[in-house]
Design a protein that fits this description.
This protein is an alpha+beta fold.
């Protein structure tokens, strides 16, 4: 299959899946929303047609079954119930998994027959066939291949099943067994186990085998089997007289990958909701025309410049170089604009994530997105997706209180989480705000002392704002217990590190009892930066112009408590000596001269960091392409990247925040 067509198919399918998820959420919150219903039906129809046209029949069958069920709901012949909606969401997850496998492998081997069979069952037998409980808590239905359509409810830890892959013929199956009604559950369990062992190797049980044979289990017990075929497992166990029903699931990946039953590494589905790298952008035709026109001008100027050099006509060469400056500037702006992508490309998946996480946590949450049309560079948008996810997860887990607790506090039963974005010149401000419990200053202080992040004396002199910033310290968490959603002591430090590497900043503001707001300030683009070159000995460094507020001489320098500072607007700016920081010999020292070294000060904007940089000289301003540090140099304090100059020299670009 042509890679070009396959890539276009994958990108369009991803967009349609996000659209389908969000429309389903609208319908779930308001079953009478006819516009959402129509959009859902159109999207499912589009997916069915696309899968069929590309030859992915299993996915087309799944989308077709969903379309038929949605058609019944649209015509008013079937009620919109939580169980039915869970089943449809399961179908969407199946389609998303298929698209992911097609992108990775070029084809899909996922079996959709289980979900298709359950969708058809609901179509034929009504909403009761979907069950009265949400689909993600398990169901009684299995398919011809024996695989369950929902995550099994089990407490077995599959990571404790010690196996070598060579000892397993094909796959590992987890079977939940329910026996016929009996007055001797232990005896019947023994007979059932013996019948199973005649056909399969039993690798583990839950509860322990002794408890099962003593009848100490609650209606069902679990078996981990070595199985060549899940369908055969279902058939063989179904023939055992003592067994009333079974639920079978392939858990091979979970056993050898150290996961848990259900195939997710996180009970809240963190992996399921991860945002992939943005691999395509949509370009306006006018931008393409502009780009084409600029390339034509570039070719013409190149020819003129070559002729001027050949004729040694320097006047003409200088004139052509001026033209090239204007053309490359326009070319730069056009290309940078083409890289800009609306925020909704990333946050479009968040509503579904919030829906699933809030159900896991037993909380009612209204999630809103504002400013999703704000645009950011593709690289920045990709990098910021996981930090935003961490922040939202923290808001749901630690911020929003359980419904009963909110009612006791005279708050609405439903919590509110809002993600908003706005543009400020060459920066974008993204905020995640919740109306939850807020941050407890005293609790943060207590944790800071326990983890030796700050002393009690230091904490007493810190403002609340500075104390809130301690949550970004690695391993710092105020959670009393670790949960699957957050509280592992990771997350917010990742947010801080990622945003800092993107040349941005992050702040926390909170009001106890009223809520918390996390604000991210990010550059719109970061590839090309205008820098001020400063000289330190024989070394040259670049300081981003946007960070520079003023350039002065050291004769304004004063000493406070033995440290050099500069005073501005009644504020004290400590001085960071770049020569000492980077251990660079002064020019006066290397030349053996007497000139005073380090006689220039570059004062940094207060919004970035209240310091002044001491250097030997300030040279010039220039736009450069900044390449981030990689490998072992990544995250080096004080450096954000490097730039290659026209003469081939490499200049380090300073990160004034971590200097």
């Amino acid at each position: 299959m042509d890679d070009q067509y396959l890539d276009a198919f994958i990108r369009e399918s991803e967009e349609e899946i996000t659209k389908l998820n969000n429309s389903l959420l609208e319908l779930e919150s308001d079953p009478s929303n006819q516009e959402a219903m129509d959009q859902i039906f159109r999207t499912a129809h589009t997916l069915k047609g696309n899968f069929g046209a590309m030859g992915f029949e299993d996915a087309a069958d799944l989308a077709h079954a969903m379309e038929d069920l949605l058609d019944e709901m649209r015509d008013g012949n079937m009620e919109v119930t939580p169980a039915v909606m869970d089943l449809i969401f399961d179908g969407v997850d199946g389609i998303e998994a298929i698209v992911g496998e097609i992108e990775d492998e070029g084809e899909s081997t996922l079996d959709t027959s289980a979900t298709v069979a359950q969708l058809r069952d609901v179509l034929e037998n009504g909403v009761e066939a979907a069950g009265g409980e949400p689909a993600d808590t398990g169901s009684d239905s299995t398919t011809s291949d024996g695989s369950s359509t929902a995550t099994l409810d089990t407490d077995i830890d599959l990571s404790d099943v010690d196996l070598d892959e060579d000892d397993v013929d094909e796959q590992v199956a987890y079977v939940e067994v329910k026996l016929e009604e009996t007055d001797m559950p232990g005896v019947d369990a023994i007979f059932a186990m013996e019948s199973v062992e005649e056909v399969f190797d039993v690798l583990a049980t839950t509860p322990d085998r002794a408890d099962i044979e003593d009848g100490n289990y609650d209606e069902t017990f679990g078996l981990v089997l070595d199985a060549e075929d899940l369908g055969r497992v279902d058939a063989e166990l179904g023939a055992v007289g003592e067994i009333e029903r079974t639920e079978v699931e392939d858990v091979t990946d979970e056993v050898f990958g150290g996961g848990s039953a259900g195939g997710s590494t996180d009970a809240t589905g963190e992996d399921e909701h991860s945002v992939d790298e943005i691999k395509s952008v949509r370009v306006d035709v006018d931008q393409l025309d502009d780009l084409h026109g600029l390339v034509e001008q570039l070719v013409t100027s190149r020819i003129k410049l070559r002729r001027a050099v050949e004729d040694e006509n320097m006047d003409s060469a200088e004139e052509t170089l001026s033209e090239l400056d204007k053309i490359t500037a326009s070319l730069q702006n056009t290309v940078m604009d083409m890289r800009l992508i609306p925020l909704k490309k990333v946050v479009g998946k968040f509503p579904r994530m919030v829906r699933d996480l809030s159900r896991e946590l037993g909380k009612d949450v209204d999630f809103e997105i504002e400013g999703e049309e704000i645009e950011l560079d593709r690289t920045i948008l990709t990098e910021i997706s996981d930090p935003l996810m961490h922040i939202i997860r923290n808001s749901l887990d630690h911020g929003i209180e359980p419904p009963e607790e909110r009612v006791e506090k005279d708050k609405p039963r439903e919590g509110q989480v809002t993600l908003s974005a706005s543009r400020e010149r060459d920066h974008v401000i993204i905020q995640v705000e919740d109306d939850g419990a807020g941050l407890d200053v005293e609790q943060i202080k207590k944790k800071a002392i326990e983890k030796e992040v700050r002393t009690a004396e230091e904490l007493e002199t810190m403002s609340n704002s500075a104390i809130y910033d301690l949550v970004f310290h690695p391993g710092f968490s105020t959670a009393d217990e670790v949960t699957d959603t957050s509280g592992r002591g990771v997350g917010m430090d990742v947010v801080h590190d990622t945003v800092t590497q993107l040349d941005g900043s992050v702040d926390v503001d909170s009001t106890p009892g009223e809520g918390t707001t996390v604000s991210l300030r990010l550059p719109v683009t970061m590839a090309i930066v205008k820098v001020l070159f400063v000289q330190v000995g024989d070394e040259e460094y670049g300081v981003p112009i946007k960070n520079v507020d003023e350039i002065t001489r050291t004769d304004e320098m004063k000493q406070v408590n033995g440290r050099n500072v500069i005073k501005h607007n009644n504020e004290i700016y400590p001085i960071v000596d770049l020569g000492e920081t980077f251990n660079v010999p002064r020019k006066a020292e290397t030349d053996g001269g007497t000139a005073e070294a380090g006689n220039m000060l570059v004062r940094i904007r207060e919004s970035e960091r209240q310091i002044a940089l001491r250097c030997d000289a300030v040279n010039a301003q220039e736009e450069v392409v900044v390449k981030p540090l990689e490998g072992i140099l990544s995250g080096t304090p004080g450096l954000s990247g490097t730039a290659v100059l026209g003469d081939g020299n490499i200049v380090h670009i300073l990160d004034v925040v971590t200097l």
